[in-house]
Specification:
By secondary structure, the chain is α+β, with helices and mostly antiparallel strands. It contains 8 helices and 9 strands. Bound molecules: 2-oxoadipic acid and nickel (II) ion.
Amino acid sequence: MTPTTFFDALWNQYTKVTPQAYNIQQLFEQQGETVLNDHVAFRTFNHSPISLEKLEPQLDALGYKAYGAFLFESKHLKARCYKHTTDVDAPKIFLSELLVDELPQSCQEIIGKLIAQIPANAVQTPAIFWAEKLWQTPTQTDYATLAEHSEYAAWLATMGLQANHFTVSINHLKKFSTIKEVNALLESEGYALNQVGGVIKGTPASCLEQSSTMADKIDYTFADGSQQKIPSCFYEFARRHPMKNGVLFDSFIEGNADKIFDSTSNK
Ligand code: OOG
Ligand code: NI
């Protein structure tokens, strides 16, 4: 599978649950822009048939190599980032996993029931990255228990493995040179932006500025038949700056990422 085939399939699945991303991309295109993606992100459970280490070979097969590692202690997450070895315009990939064993016993039991349903050999092709749920829908009670301790766990239990966000590369836009201008456009169109720690995460001095929408909401039916609106996926915007050596910063920043995760918060 080529990166182009991979990202096309991923985008098709992502925009089905994230109509705002399609609409925002259209908005930029109506202004004469061609939207390039800086990165996409995925979430998963550790110690499972779809753990980070089980998924990694599929990224290798697409021509990607890991180049950074991150830890989010209070969210009980670890993450790695990947870039394509030859295609500089291919989006980077941010892959995080929940350290399930660090959550309370009640959550471990709920997640254990989900993980037990995933076939041991679930990871065979890159199509695993848009598999969505590989387990039965949780009950609303289990969802609430997870959400109390980990918004990430609650999101993953309901949404499963899929692109959690795509990210517009502001560097590749012609008419928008700052992230402020991008945010102003989004706000004027009525999109809700993630306000955690301020709308813009990072500074030019830290070489990476990011903002994101709050996730779209979808009608979700739980195992017990009850319905609730829950967060699906969001859209991100990133502006990269050169480091002191003149090279464009191409990694991620824990302090920014920690706040971007909250774009799927249901509070
Ligand atoms: C990933 C959050 C981190 C970034 O660009 O730093 C991130 C997630 O929400 O799964 O996307
Ligand atoms: Ni991101």
